[in-house]
């Protein structure tokens, strides 16, 4: 096994834009409903919990303070099973992605995870280890895995943060297919927050992107019929809207859908 050290860093206000939620790991809610503020050091006085993440050669031991972990309802329920005199507190997460868990821990300690969003833009900080354009979908999948982990752990603030970063990634058609496959394999049908932008993207751009990844697009539709149905439904809905608009405004013209691969999409 290898170990991964998580750095503790208190973020500055400049690291968070106005859309960020819960920038520090303290309970959310109206001020009148909240208990008196807990000093940050009190979290650091809580017991250390060992997390066994992944399996095989990629398995790693991570550690975190229990009082921070229990900001997650899932961890709160799990840690409640520890006896007070237990010397070693250990939780197995062998089916979880190591990088996603690392991002989750970074979020607990700092209120964000790398790469950070650049305030006032739709861009992420430059990461020298990743290309400018996501050819494989790896950058999209990084944030998608954080999103699904946050769903499991019951952390809406982290879900929202991960989703916002997904929309900042530039990708290719093949990268988009890899991302769409993950979304349809690991999210619920009614999770429109992440599925609807995927559907909208392919419904408005499939006429140009399909040529770049036609085999992958066909395989995706066969593997996930719901994806094909959702895209077709969106295409037909848009067609009906255009026909209705043509009847109301016969002389109007329609703009060509944007071709930018920037992930900020309308729903």
Quick one: overall form? elongated
Distance between the termini: 43 Å
Considering DSSP H and I runs of 4 or more, what fraction of the residues is helical?
A: 40-55%
Strands of the biggest beta sheet: in what spatial order?
Answer: 1-3-2-4
Compute the number of helices: 10
Cα gyration radius (Å): 21 Å
Mean pLDDT: 83
Low-confidence stretches: 1-23, 256-261, 263-267
- Largest beta-sheet details: 4 strands, mixed
What is the structure about, briefly put?
Residues 49-117 form the BTB domain. This protein is of the alpha/beta class and 267 residues long.
List the helices and strands and how they pair.
Elements: E1 2-3, H1 40-44, E2 48-53, E3 60-65, H2 66-69, H3 73-79, E4 89-93, H4 98-110, H5 138-153, H6 156-166, H7 173-186, H8 192-209, H9 214-223, H10 225-248
Parallel strand pairs: 1-3, 2-4
Antiparallel strand pairs: 2-3
Helix pairs in contact: 4-5, 5-6, 5-7, 7-8, 8-10, 9-10
């Amino acid at each position: 096994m290898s170990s991964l050290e998580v750095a503790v860093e208190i973020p500055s206000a400049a690291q968070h834009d106005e859309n960020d939620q819960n920038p520090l790991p303290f309970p959310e809610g109206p001020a009148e409903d909240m208990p008196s503020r807990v000093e940050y050091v009190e979290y650091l006085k809580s017991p250390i919990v060992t997390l066994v993440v992944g399996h095989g050669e990629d398995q790693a031991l991570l550690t975190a303070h229990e009082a921070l972990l229990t900001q997650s309802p899932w961890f709160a329920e799990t840690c409640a099973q520890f006896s007070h005199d237990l010397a070693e507190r250990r939780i197995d997460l062998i089916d979880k992605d190591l990088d996603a868990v690392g991002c989750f821990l970074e979020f607990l300690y700092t209120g964000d995870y790398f790469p950070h969003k650049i305030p006032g833009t739709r861009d992420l900080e430059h990461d020298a280890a990743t290309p400018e354009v996501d050819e494989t979908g790896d950058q999209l999948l990084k944030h998608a895995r954080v999103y699904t982990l946050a769903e499991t752990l019951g952390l809406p603030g982290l879900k929202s943060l991960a989703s916002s970063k997904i929309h900042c990634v530039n990708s290719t058609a093949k990268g988009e297919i890899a991302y769409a496959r993950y979304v349809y394999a690991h999210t619920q049908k009614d999770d429109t927050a992440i599925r609807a932008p995927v559907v909208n993207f392919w419904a408005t751009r499939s006429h140009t992107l399909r040529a770049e990844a036609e085999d992958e697009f066909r395989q995706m539709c066969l593997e996930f019929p719901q994806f094909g149905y959702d895209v077709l439904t969106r295409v037909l809905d848009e067609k009906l809207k255009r026909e209705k608009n043509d009847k109301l405004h016969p002389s109007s013209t329609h703009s060509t859908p944007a071709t930018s691969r920037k992930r900020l999409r309308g729903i």
